[in-house]
Amino acid sequence: MLEQQRENGNATIYQYQLIKKSHIPRPLMLLYLLFPIPALLAGTFWFSWHAVVYMPIAFFLVLWIHFVVSNSVLLIRGPVYRKKWRLRFSGVWFGFLPDQHTGSSVIQQVLMQSLWIGFVFIGVLAAWIPLALTLALLFWHLWFMAPRISVLLGMRGQRKDIMVKLNAQDISYYVQ
User: Fold this and answer.
1) N or C: which end of the chain has fewer CB within 10 A?
2) Is residue 173 within 8 Å of residue 158, measured between CB atoms?
3) pLDDT for 98-131, tens place per residue?
């Protein structure tokens, strides 16, 4: 069937050349995934049992902030980009992230906007919410952003036309 589509000219075939692949070591992934447990225990020790309530609230609030910011940036860039992104919960990737090969400029813009707007949003809320909730929001924001920042750091020094693919076990950088 694919041969038939190729003959009719209906198939779009992309060829990407792998230029860099950053494997995420299993111990690092395990450390990342288990890190919220000591953070919850520390919050409970320093701020009382309220941390047990604030951590799940902050988790979903930060997830929502990242979704809204990412979705807004993608809508401004055009509907074509939004189709490649979805909510992901695999490996170290949590949140609204690309599901396919995505251009570095799109990823860089979305991640930087999420990083700074998330900090601003938490800073604005800090005046009206308890300190423990503010710290929980900061923790989850940094926890969500840590793997994404590694993507941005991996793109430093690379060509501007690279494509990035986020897999559960690695980050792959391609050139078209």
Assistant:
1) N
2) yes
3) 888 888 888 889 999 999 999 999 999 999 999 8
